[in-house]
């Protein structure tokens, strides 16, 4: 059982014994395992670079992956990695001390990308895009140096939904963070095993475990971020209609190219009477079928 005290990874030592927490923990483990299996993330014997920012999401990712590995359900080698980007006031000792205490193999890398971001981004603009690119480039380099086949990120269901709506509202495209992709150079996988996990569950889990959470003061302190605006919009929808996020995420897994308008993914030019395919009209109002 997941809550047996004598067979858990040190990352779960001191876990609350309440029924509520046990259900939360089992749900996160189940949903993570489901995402890993659904998208075929595992090749036995691979090595994963598990990226740890010190936020609630990355702590949840680290814990659940080690739980699955501890139980023989994740046959890969895990290396935790934190990229210290030189933000003023970043508590540089927190993560190495935590990882050492928990017996988690890790690498701490210092690269002052903060100075680059502050220098290059015009005043009044947000740092996130450039910061993310610099961070990702360094993580790819570290993965190669450590012999890792995959860079594993802590993006959850809500991150994926928010990115979809940001692309819809501001990018003019239907796209989001996929649970699994190959990097541009074609030599590394990028995986998001928390793709089915709600942000609220990550928050509850990390807080209940009393992990030493480090906030992102570089971009999180900036007002008016597009992502924050989208988050507020989704929060409002969820408060008005509980379960709305789950429905929207299911839509990302249930795409009908013939009911969109992109000729690059559906051959509208060749479409003619007598060529109807099964379920092609699913989703249309009865009067239009």
TrEMBL record:
InterPro entries: Rossmann-like_a/b/a_fold, TilS/TtcA_N, tRNA_Cyd_32_2_STrfase, tRNA_thiolation_TtcA_Ctu1. Its cofactor is [4Fe-4S] cluster; Mg(2+). Its main location: cytoplasm. Pfam families: ATP_bind_3 (PF01171). Its EC number is 2.8.1.-. GO terms for molecular function: transferase activity. Pathway: tRNA modification. Residues 48-210 form the tRNA(Ile)-lysidine/2-thiocytidine synthase N-terminal domain. The keyword RNA-binding applies. Signal peptide: none annotated. The keyword Cell inner membrane does not apply. Binds 1 [4Fe-4S] cluster per subunit. The cluster is chelated by three Cys residues, the fourth Fe has a free coordination site that may bind a sulfur atom transferred from the persulfide of IscS. Catalyzes the ATP-dependent 2-thiolation of cytidine in position 32 of tRNA, to form 2-thiocytidine (s(2)C32). The sulfur atoms are provided by the cysteine/cysteine desulfurase (IscS) system. The thiolation reaction likely consists of two steps: a first activation step by ATP to form an adenylated intermediate of the target base of tRNA, and a second nucleophilic substitution step of the sulfur (S) atom supplied by the hydrosulfide attached to the Fe-S cluster. Homodimer. This is tRNA-cytidine(32) 2-sulfurtransferase. It comes from Paragemmobacter amnigenus. The gene is ttcA.
